[in-house]
């Protein structure tokens, strides 16, 4: 058994999160939500692999209609990800009202809520309050949202604090757990990427947190083709059973001196199915740069792509027919799926050359 922090119980469908209940492993469908057969198939595959919760993206009225049908055809506990629609709601109501609105809807329908904070999309005002400490901004953002829900008298919520770097995930979750030991935590390393590296990054974070009693549910986000999506659950269960048995496999630091490829796990918002293949090709093509401390981000869509690539040295985010290329926050243009690898290589070579020159000049 893993010794756990004393978090409160939060029921989500037939699963209860929190102390006294097993750490629930979850995953997210990468199928188009409107493709009901494919989505039901993937939800069932995740459930069969031991997934306690299955997340679905809902971005339109058509998705909502499909959701009703998916609900009818699967026994999986469904979690709805309203990312885009949530932003639309934000445009029409002040922040606190948006939270109250969500609380009212959750109460009326017997639902739990998740406060999800991603380092890449923390409110810029909050970031400005904690210069140079992204983790403090993330934690404050989560605490602020907890206060809104507490003030609204709603305690059926869990919190997630995610980043693509395990160190930040560990630090954010540790600080939050110290400040709010009562709130159940959903653990995840976002855009962990392709196995085996994606598994290593996730394992590093989860081992450090679970062994301190932190974490009530978890997701391993891996860039995998649809038929292998349920492997996220298999990996999550394996990490849990290893930690419970005291089998720690990872070195508890993540190597910062090497090439770091981050890629999103894909979901129904992917606009071109060549995304997973592209992420794999980027990994292959860039292998020659393995010894350079650079980060390349590969993201599946316009929802998170533009923002979540800002911190990467080179970022790619996929559109329906083109891939957008960035150097940090600067856009370098959009390129066809058949052109992008060659262009990326040119940019990567130029970055490596510039760094070598700078270090030669500094000698
Ligand atoms: S970047 Fe887009 S496609 Fe990838 S997981 Fe996030 S929302 Fe889904």
Describe the structure.
With 363 residues, the protein is α/β, with parallel strands linked by helices. The protein has twelve helices and 14 strands. Strand 8, helix 8 (197-210) and strand 9 (217-219) form a beta-alpha-beta unit. Helix 6 (134-151) packs parallel to helix 7 and helix 8 (197-210) packs parallel to helix 9 (231-244). Residues 88-95 have low confidence and may be disordered. Bound molecules: iron/sulfur cluster (SF4).
Strand order of the largest sheet: 5-4-3-9-8-7-6
Question: Secondary-structure element order, as H and E?
Answer: EEEHEHEHHEHHEHEHEHEHEHEEEH
Q: What proportion of the residues form beta strands (DSSP E)? A: 15-25%
> How big is the Rg?
20 Å
Helical stretch tally = 12
Helix content: 40-55%
Distance between the termini: 53 Å
What's the helix and strand layout?
Layout: E1 10-12, E2 15-17, E3 24-28, H1 36-48, E4 53-57, H2 61-73, E5 78-81, H3 83-92, H4 95-108, E6 113-118, H5 124-129, H6 134-151, E7 157-162, H7 166-179, E8 185-188, H8 197-210, E9 217-219, H9 231-244, E10 260-263, H10 275-285, E11 295-299, H11 305-308, E12 314-318, E13 322-327, E14 330-336, H12 340-362
Parallel strand pairs: 3-4, 3-9, 4-5, 6-7, 7-8, 8-9, 10-11, 11-12
Antiparallel strand pairs: 1-2, 12-13, 13-14
Helix pairs in contact: 1-2, 6-7, 7-8, 8-9
The structure holds iron/sulfur cluster (SF4).
Iron/sulfur cluster is lined by residues 264-267, 269-270, 299-301, 303-305.
């Amino acid at each position: 058994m893993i010794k756990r922090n004393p978090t409160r119980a939060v029921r989500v469908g037939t699963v209860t999160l929190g102390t006294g209940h097993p750490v629930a492993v979850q995953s997210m469908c990468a199928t188009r939500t409107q493709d009901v057969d494919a989505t039901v198939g993937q939800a069932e595959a995740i459930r069969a692999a031991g997934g306690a919760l299955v997340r679905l993206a809902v971005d339109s009225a058509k998705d909502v209609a499909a959701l009703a049908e998916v609900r009818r055809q699967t026994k999986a506990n469904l979690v709805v990800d309203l990312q885009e629609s949530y932003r639309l709601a934000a445009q029409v109501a002040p922040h606190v009202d948006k939270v109250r609105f969500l609380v009212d809807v959750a109460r009326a329908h017997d639902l739990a809520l998740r406060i999800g904070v991603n380092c890449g999309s923390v409110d810029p005002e909050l970031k400005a309050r904690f210069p140079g400490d992204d983790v403090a901004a993330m934690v404050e953002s989560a605490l602020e949202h907890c206060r809104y829900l507490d003030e609204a008298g709603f305690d059926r919520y869990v919190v997630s604090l995610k980043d693509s770097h395990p160190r930040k995930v560990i630090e954010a979750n540790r600080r939050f757990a110290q400040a709010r030991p009562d709130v159940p935590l959903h653990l995840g390393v976002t855009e962990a990427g392709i196995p085996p590296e994606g598994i290593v990054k996730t394992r590093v974070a989860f081992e450090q947190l679970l062994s301190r009693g932190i974490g009530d549910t978890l997701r391993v986000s891996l860039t995998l083709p649809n038929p292998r999506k349920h492997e996220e659950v298999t990996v999550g269960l394996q990490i849990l059973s290893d930690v419970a048995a005291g089998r720690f496999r990872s070195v508890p630091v993540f190597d910062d001196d090497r090439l770091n490829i981050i890629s999103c796990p894909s979901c129904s918002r992917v606009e071109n199915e060549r995304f997973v293949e592209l992420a794999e090709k980027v990994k292959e093509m860039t292998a020659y740069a393995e010894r350079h401390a650079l980060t390349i981000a590969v993201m599946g869509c316009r929802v998170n792509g533009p923002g979540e690539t800002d911190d990467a040295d080179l970022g790619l985010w996929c559109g329906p027919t083109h891939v957008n290329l960035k150097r940090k926050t600067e856009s370098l243009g959009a390129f066809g799926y058949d052109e992008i690898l060659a262009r990326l290589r040119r940019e990567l070579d130029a970055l490596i050359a510039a760094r070598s020159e700078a270090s030669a000049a500094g000698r």
